[in-house]
Amino acid sequence: MSHLLRKPNKKEIEKGVIVVHEVTSENSPLEYVGFKVIDLDPNAKYSELLGNQECCIVALTGKINVSVGDENFENLGTRESVFEKIPTDSVYVSNQRHFEVEGVTKARVALCYSPSERQLPTKWIKAENVGIEHRGILNNKRFVHNILPDSDPSANSLLVVEVFTESGNWSSYPPHKHDRDNLPNESLLEETYYHEMDPPQGFVFQRVYTDDRSLDETMTVENGDVVIVPKGYHPVGVPDGYTSYYLNVMAGPKRIWKFYNDPDHEWILKR
């Protein structure tokens, strides 16, 4: 199996708290991005003290309570399935802070991490304030929820976005990359993709490759998988009959999303 493809590996760390994914700098080639998926039973609690990291807590499905220090955010979460295609609630937590997430219902939560040293205010990113965007034409259409975009100064390095791609379409396409600190033309951002499919027995294809093909892997990605993108182009293709969802986490030395298209395929934008 590809070293960039992670299958769910569920571990119950305490009663009602299951870690589904855990991507860190210790177990992956990533330096700037960390990522966890946690499943919570009702009343089960997960807590963490952040060091020099910031975290965006995303209520993927179900309802949760989040407490950060003496701030409490209750009944967060708007959907039973990501494929309801409505924005959800998230909470931004800065470095050196303690947070706790409690399941109100059965819930799945994404924890998105990146390095941070300048402490910022805790922020409830309300579902109703999440920007919605339609991108692309023809078979290159996708629907985006901008949870923590680079236009929002609430974080030091984290960028978080949800993307829905319909049956028979492509996304992160034409193939683009962001692996050089070469602004204003391109920024250096690592990335993770957390994937779900509807119906759940579906799959998508994701290729991660560099110009010199020193990295060139094409993966069959199934429901609940994570793909790690340390560098290179990273398009996603969705087979007929299925809808794709993914949650992207990006971070790097500068909090700017500036991508570079593969010149071989950029012509499709001119159609």
TrEMBL record:
EC number(s) per entry: 5.3.1.30
Record key words, sorted: Isomerase
Give the main EC class.
isomerase
Indicate whether Isomerase appears among the record's keywords.
Answer: yes
Pathway terms, separated by semicolons: Polyol metabolism; myo-inositol degradation into acetyl-CoA; acetyl-CoA from myo-inositol: step 4/7
Question: Which InterPro entries does the protein's record reference?
Answer: Deoxy-glucuronate_isom_IolB (IPR024203), IolB_Bacilli (IPR023770), KduI/IolB_isomerase (IPR021120), RmlC-like_jellyroll (IPR014710), RmlC_Cupin_sf (IPR011051)
Q: Name one GO molecular function term.
A: 5-deoxy-D-glucuronate isomerase activity
Q: Which reaction does it catalyse?
A: 5-deoxy-D-glucuronate = 5-dehydro-2-deoxy-D-gluconate
Going by the entry's taxonomy, the superkingdom of the source organism is recorded as: Bacteria
Q: Does the keyword Protein biosynthesis apply?
A: no
Which family does the record claim for this protein? Belongs to the isomerase IolB family.
Q: Which NCBIfam families has this protein been placed in?
A: myo_inos_iolB
- In UniProt terms, what function does this protein have? Involved in the isomerization of 5-deoxy-glucuronate (5DG) to 5-dehydro-2-deoxy-D-gluconate (DKG or 2-deoxy-5-keto-D-gluconate).
What's this protein's name? 5-deoxy-glucuronate isomerase
Q: To which species is this protein native?
A: Aeribacillus composti
